Amino acid sequence: MQSKTYWVNHLNMLPHPEGGFFKEVYRSDESVATDALPARYAGSRSFATSIYFLIESENFSAFHRIQSDEIWHFYTGSTITMHIIHPDGKLVTHKIGPNFEAGEVFQLVIPHSCWFAASVDEPDAYALVGCGVAPGFDFVDFELGTAAQLVAEYPQHAEVISSYTRT
């Protein structure tokens, strides 16, 4: 298995605001007009986008949400634990990884408007995934959660929120 540094350098990845590293690899040349999208979008969006995303065990992907559905695809490395808080307050935890027999999945859909955070399960390890978004990702749709904001809205999940927020 290649090292984290190999992938970050080989794929020309940059630090991501939520944690980890990313590289956009696809953005559709066509877009959906604003008037054809739900009201939660402030403008037109590409049909779809995708990135490589690498997260390491000594870091985490902090709670954030976007306005589109996002599909994570496992490529290599260690299993990831994904925490999703739905708008109604329901918390669901999933495992993304290579051990299908243990209940892990190769792909996971995070529905739009859900808060989600992720971490690598194994110490001194990383996971390389792909993230597809449709309608396409735009940073204007990205919201990084704070502990105060999320605990005020979902006090029943204070422990997991405090583990996966930076402010």
Offer a few descriptive terms:
five-stranded antiparallel sheet, six-stranded antiparallel sheet, single chain, 12% helix, Jelly Rolls, mainly beta, 167 residues, 3 helices
Structure classification: mainly beta
- Side-by-side strand order of the widest sheet: 1-2-5-12-7-10
Alpha carbon gap, first and last residue: 34 Å
Note the run of SSEs as H and E: HEEEEEEEEEEEEEHH
Number of helices: 3
Helical content stands at 10-25%
Question: Please, how many domains?
Answer: 1
If classified by CATH, what would the architecture be? Sandwich
The number of strands is 13
Strand content: 35-45%
CATH class: Mainly Beta
User: What is the fold-level CATH name, i.e. the topology?
Assistant: Jelly Rolls
Low-confidence stretches: none
Overall geometry = globular
Indicate the mean pLDDT.
96
Strand-helix topology:
Layout: H1 4-10, E1 14-15, E2 21-27, E3 31-32, E4 45-46, E5 49-56, E6 61-65, E7 69-77, E8 80-85, E9 91-96, E10 107-110, E11 115-120, E12 126-134, E13 143-144, H2 147-153, H3 158-163
Antiparallel strand pairs: 1-2, 2-5, 3-4, 5-12, 6-11, 6-13, 7-10, 7-12, 8-9, 8-11
Put the structure in a nutshell.
Helix content is 12%, strand content 41%. With 167 residues, it is mainly beta. It has a single domain, classed as Jelly Rolls (Sandwich).
Describe this entry's structure for a reader.
The chain has 167 residues and is mainly beta. It has a single domain (4-31, 42-163), classed as Jelly Rolls (Sandwich), CATH 2.60.120. Helix content is 12%, strand content 41%. It has 3 helices and 13 strands, in the order αβββββββββββββαα. It has helices spanning 4-10, 147-153, 158-163, and strands spanning 14-15, 21-27, 31-32, 45-46, 49-56, 61-65, 69-77, 80-85, 91-96, 107-110, 115-120, 126-134, 143-144. The strands form 3 sheets. A 6-stranded antiparallel sheet has the order 1-2-5-12-7-10. A hairpin with a 5-residue loop joins β1 and β2 (21-27). It is globular, with a radius of gyration of 16 Å.
